[in-house]
Amino acid sequence: MTRSALLASCLFLAACGDPSSGSEVETPQLPTGESGSETQAPQGTLESDPLVEDAAQDMATRLAALPAPYSEADLANGARQFRRCTSCHTIGEGGPHRVGPNLHGLFRRTAGEAEGFNYSPALREAGFDWTPDHLDAWLADPRGYIPGNRMSFVGLRDADDRRDVIAYLLLETEL
Ligand code: HEC
């Protein structure tokens, strides 16, 4: 009874998480108290770095300004999904073409028109400008959306993964 009351107030005040007062809690998890404080110091420095905070704030503002449903996207997942593309695509301004074309400025382009990339006739003749809707359909089923194209990628089945990677591209292809 007393023990659980103590535990409850301890949780409520979050005092147990404080390394200075909670050595009994910390000891079983960390080999030594010293290594614990060493790993905490750099994290504190990073979090309070004004440049890192400004960049994160800037990204959050740009994300919120996107049209729905992209404003709701999980950008961390979008970045993770985009790793599936990076074996074939670069994204930065002036980046090289790889197996696939550089994707910088994608949403200001007509399909099949990145300079210096040798597209399939199918993609060259697709005849539309890239929008989030076109990209969603393309990524859901690359082979079916533009038959005869040469992107050998199965696509992204999950609609949330597509939303997230499209939001990521909406922000990153303009940087
Ligand atoms: C195995 C290589 C490969 C992978 C992986 C891949 N692509 Fe591609 N992608 C290509 C190729 C090749 C083309 C050009 C196809 C053609 O000319 O028919 C292309 C074309 C495109 C285009 C059209 C670009 C334009 O200028 O019209 C977009 C958009 C695109 N890919 C996005 C993606 C995204 C997003 C991913 C990851 C989710 C991805 N691709 C994964 C190879 C790949």
UniProtKB/TrEMBL annotation:
Residues 17-49 are annotated as: Disordered. InterPro entries: Cyt_c-like_dom (IPR009056), Cyt_c-like_dom_sf (IPR036909), Cyt_c_1A/1B (IPR002327). Residues 73-173 form the Cytochrome c domain. Signal peptide: none annotated. Residues 20-46 have a biased composition (Polar residues). Keywords: Electron transport, Heme, Iron, Metal-binding, Transport. It holds the Pfam family Cytochrom_C. PANTHER family: CYTOCHROME C (PTHR11961). This is Cytochrome c family protein. It comes from Hyphobacterium marinum.
